[in-house]
Specification:
The chain has one domain (about 5-105): 2-Layer Sandwich (HIT family, subunit A), CATH 3.30.428. It has about 110 residues and is α+β, with helices and mostly antiparallel strands. The chain has a 5-stranded antiparallel sheet, with helices on one face. About 25% of the residues lie in helices and about 20% in strands. The structure holds guanosine-5'-monophosphate (5GP) and zinc ion. Guanosine-5'-monophosphate binds near residues 15, 27, 31, 39 and 96.
Length: about 110
């Protein structure tokens, strides 16, 4: 398995993990773009949001991940708000081909994103 985020999920390479349960793991981004910048990933490998189906398993997993976002945000002190980002595919500028959501906070965000 050559996927770097699978390796992080399986602790084959180190990362700064801030939350973990059976289904998902959240760790600090190597190149933070905000005072708080973490990545939330399912442990199961999906290449991108395009790989998510309407199967019960996928819905349950993604629903679980979404329900944990505010728990993680609270743990990281983001009581004033935050941004959740998914970059999908080439136009979305996805660079790591394992589904992940960026959770950013600790500063005022801009809009529209670049
Ligand atoms: P993408 O551009 O695919 O949406 O985001 C990939 C993110 O993964 C980038 O923000 C990048 O800094 C981060 N990243 C890439 N490789 C590693 C790594 O080995 N460890 C950690 N913690 N973050 C990584
Ligand atoms: Zn993977």
């Amino acid at each position: 398995m050559s996927c770097i985020f699978c390796k992080i999920a399986q602790k084959e390479i180190p990362s700064d993990i801030v939350y973990e349960d059976e289904e998902i793991v959240c760790f600090r981004d190597l190149e933070p773009q905000a005072p708080v910048h973490v990545l939330i990933i399912p442990k199961k490998h999906y290449e991108s949001l395009d790989s998510v189906t309407e199967s019960g398993e996928d819905k349950e997993l993604l629903g679980h991940l979404m329900a944990k976002v505010h728990v993680i945000a609270a743990r990281l002190g983001l009581e004033n708000g935050y941004r959740l980002v998914n970059n999908c595919g080439e136009d979305g500028m996805q660079t790591v081909k394992h589904l992940h959501f960026h959770l950013l906070g600790g500063r005022q965000m801009g809009w529209p994103p670049g």
